[in-house]
Amino acid sequence: EQIRIAGYLAMPEMAKETPLPGWLNVTGDMNAAKTAAAQYQVVALSIDRVGSGNSTGPRDHYLEWLAVEGEPRNGWMYHFVMAAIRGVTYLQTLPEVKPDAIGITGTSRGGICSLLANAVDERIKLAVPIAATGDMVNTAEYAANWIESIFLKEGQKTKDSEAFRVFHQYYDPLNSVHTSHGAVFLINGAQDEFFPIPSTRHVFN
After folding, report:
1. Phi/psi of residue 159, nearest 5 degrees
2. Who's near 102: CB < 8 A, 6+ residues apart?
3. Per residue in 159-168, pLDDT tens?
4. φ, ψ of residue 92 in degrees (nearest 5)
């Protein structure tokens, strides 16, 4: 299937005269793009996630994006990261964007996506993941965490399943943080049990 990703672009008027940094939000909308462009003087691109909004591809549902069996490129998260990389490519084609000054951000799954994209795309100079972390195996040991709440209950998987093994191997940011290309500014709440602080600390260390 050919996957088409919908995007919302906003830029300050001054970008027509002087190229500005590019800013990709993988969990945003038109308002998020407009707000970022106005507040931070960047050319901002927000995209609809794969299979949601106006984007096509595997539907954006827990049973879909956690159902990774065998080939990791069959997974929804793979297509999400590919969409982010395509977003970086699109920003680089714009004359209003400084091609060597592109950042990425996202919240929750989008934060994980921004960490993974930063680990594989050398063009990204800054990643700002929000409410996200890696260290999935240890995260599952804490109360009210996202692995327990989403992967195991909503996704109808177990920690011993092939799906969890593959998801952890390929999509746990902890496994690829050593190849991060841009600087990382990871933002998590101290009382956000969904993404435990000990897991965040482990990723940082």
Report:
1. -65, -15
2. 21, 22, 23, 24, 88, 91, 92, 123, 124, 125
3. 777 878 888 8
4. -65, -20
* Cβ 101 vs Cβ 195: under 8 Å: no
Question: With the C-alpha atoms ordered 79, 82, 88, 90, is the resulting torsion angle positive or negative?
Answer: negative
- CA dist., res. 44 & res. 124, Å (int): 14
Mean per-residue pLDDT, 51-76: 78
- Helix axes of 76-93 and 162-171: crossing angle, nearest 10 degrees: 20
Q: Where are the beta strands (DSSP E) in 159-202?
A: 183-184
Residue 23 β-bridge partners: 44, 103
The secondary structure element, H or E, covering residue 113 is: helix 109-120
Q: Cβ distance 27 to 110 under 8 Å?
A: yes
Q: Is the pTM value of this prediction over 0.90?
A: yes
